[in-house]
Write a structure and sequence with these properties.
mainly alpha; single chain; two-stranded antiparallel sheet
């Protein structure tokens, strides 16, 4: 978890025995899930596992999926797809915001061009009245 910003919901405060008790699992099950890559608890400098609320939610999802008969590899794949799906949703939101900003910029630029065009058209009419162009014979 090095490099990840710790948020209040991710704050790792539960030792393995408490996390196991809260999740209704045996501590050895949590260690197995960690070895299999399903969960990644925070490690203190001394190597002690610390679990967060987010970890407990993940354990609950693992328990729900395995309870439905999905094996560990299937759970791992489902969780990876869920994470990828969330990343894609975040990217879509970012792109929509970017698109809205670009549209607003384009609208403002179009309005500015239209205003300039109106000003120039009025100026051309005024100057046409002032200037007299010679008539060319046909």
């Amino acid at each position: 978890m090095a490099g990840k910003r710790i948020t209040p919901e991710m704050e790792a405060v539960y030792v393995i025995s408490v996390a196991a008790s809260l999740s209704g699992m045996h501590p050895q099950t949590l260690r197995i899930y960690e070895r299999r890559g399903l969960i990644e608890p925070f490690r203190t400098p001394g190597g002690t596992r610390r679990y967060s609320e987010a970890d407990l939610e993940r354990l609950s999802l693992i328990q729900e999926l395995t309870g439905q008969g999905i094996n560990i590899e299937g759970v791992k794949r489902i969780m990876a797809l869920e994470e990828e799906n969330q990343l894609l949703r975040d990217e879509v939101r970012r792109l929509r915001r970017q698109k809205r900003a670009a549209q607003e910029t384009a609208i403002a630029a179009t309005e500015a061009l239209q205003e300039t065009r109106r000003n120039l058209a009025g100026e051309i009419l005024v100057r046409r009245d002032i200037l007299r162009f010679p008539e060319f014979p046909r």
